[in-house]
Amino acid sequence: MRDIASKPSRLPPRVVEERTAKMAAIPVKKKAAAKEIPLGKLPEIKKEGRKFGLPKLKSTLILLGAVIILAAIGIFAISLAEVRVSVAPRQVSMDVDANIEASSNAASAVSLEIISVEDTVELGGSIEKTSSGTEKASGQIIIFNAYSTAEQALVATTRLEAPGGKIYRIKNSITLPGGKMEGGKLTPGQLEVTVYADKAGAEYNIGLADFTIPGFKGTPKFEKIYARSKTEMAGGSSGGAKIVTQEAINNLLIQAQENFRQEIKNKVQKSLLESAYIPASAIDVKITLLDADPKVNTVADEVQIKAKVSAQVSIFKADEITRELASKYLDLNGEEKVMVNNLNDLDFKILSKNINEKKITFKIAGQARFTWLFDEEALKKDLSQASRSMRQDVFKRYPGIDRAEITFSPSWLRFFPSDPNKIKLDYQNL
């Protein structure tokens, strides 16, 4: 080996001496003697496992909250979810013209119930018609002859005077019958006549009054031959006035009659089953005028009537009439059931009626729309139990259904409830 010679130091000699002295002053540590370890008593060496850091608490809470919110949204969406099944039943339109007998007899194919109703109604209306010119008031009076048992002639245009001086006249000549002596007392003869106001104008429209005959003034007849109103004097106008006419009264009676007919139908319909069939012509209404205020020929803007109405109502069952029509015009098997869903649109006419036997023969004609029926509850149950791929096959088991469509709401949540009551049915083309 080659000797290795130290390179001469480049430091100044004084610095080298100082460093050498310091190094000589540092104590040297002695190495510890190695201990002898007995055999079989080796010390345990502890193995430290790998340490994993736990998620922060804040992150955990955020994650848990998100899960809860998503779950709540899902539950809320399911609670609002709705399934609608739009069903178009099988239908056939056919012209019918059939005579059918209905009776209260239990063995009758079409049952009949007859009820009677009576009431008093009041109805008012506005007067639309106006007089085209001047009109004279008129009314009915009774002229009495308490003068003698002999007849008394009154010439045409004889004047009769009302309190206040208004003059009314008879048109034609009349003869008053004489009075009759009964028990020594004279019972006046009497005659009813129509009188007309001497002049046109509404001021001659007056109420009930007593009348004298000015032509007899200054004679004994003036006190013994007199008249009294049977009706009010009415109809006087100066032109353009609204007058109560008999036509206006009759129109109100017709309206009251129809109102009562509809009211009775609604009341009876509510008190009976929905299958009750009450055509308008099966309600026979009679009306009698009790009073009109004001009277005919009176100048007025409105009129009020009071009338007595009575009705006889014949009640049938729609399903029984449908069954009779179906038996005549359709070839159904034992399980098929139909209804005529436009029964009220068909013409109904009573051909004969026997109230004592409670029997009616009627004719029903028109284009009937027969609609097949099916068990709604059974359909809902079958749909709720069917798998998604088999739901359309369920409809094929119902011959009364022509076509059907399932709609989900919301559209993105195709959740089909297992509870049949949560399935909604809609009918098309009814």
Set out the fold topology.
Elements (H helix, E strand, L loop, with lengths): L12 H13 L31 H24 L1 E8 L1 E13 L6 E2 L1 E14 L7 E12 L6 E3 L4 E3 L5 E4 L3 E3 L3 E3 L2 E3 L1 E12 L9 E3 L8 H4 E5 L7 E2 L7 H26 L4 E2 L5 E11 L8 E16 H12 L8 E3 L6 E8 L4 E14 L3 H10 L5 H6 L4 E9 L13 E5 L3
Parallel strand pairs: 1-23, 2-3
Antiparallel strand pairs: 1-22, 2-21, 4-18, 5-12, 5-14, 5-15, 6-9, 7-8, 8-12, 10-11, 13-14, 16-18, 17-18, 19-21, 20-21
Task: Describe the protein's architecture and organization.
Strands 5, 7, 8, 12, 13, 14 and 15 form a 7-stranded antiparallel β-sheet that branches. This protein has 4 domains: 78-90 and 373-427, no CATH class; 96-103 and 317-369, no CATH class; 115-127 and 243-313; 134-238, no CATH class. Helix content is 22%, strand content 37%. It contains 7 helices and 23 strands. The longest helix is centred in the middle third of the chain and has 26 residues, at 246-271. It has helices at residues 13-25, 57-80, 221-224, 246-271, 318-329, 376-385, 391-396, and strands at residues 82-89, 91-103, 110-111, 113-126, 134-145, 152-154, 159-161, 167-170, 174-176, 180-182, 185-187, 189-200, 210-212, 225-229, 237-238, 276-277, 283-293, 302-317, 338-340, 347-354, 359-372, 401-409, 423-427. With 430 residues, it is α+β, with helices and mostly antiparallel strands. Strand 17 (283-293) and strand 18 (302-317) form a beta hairpin.
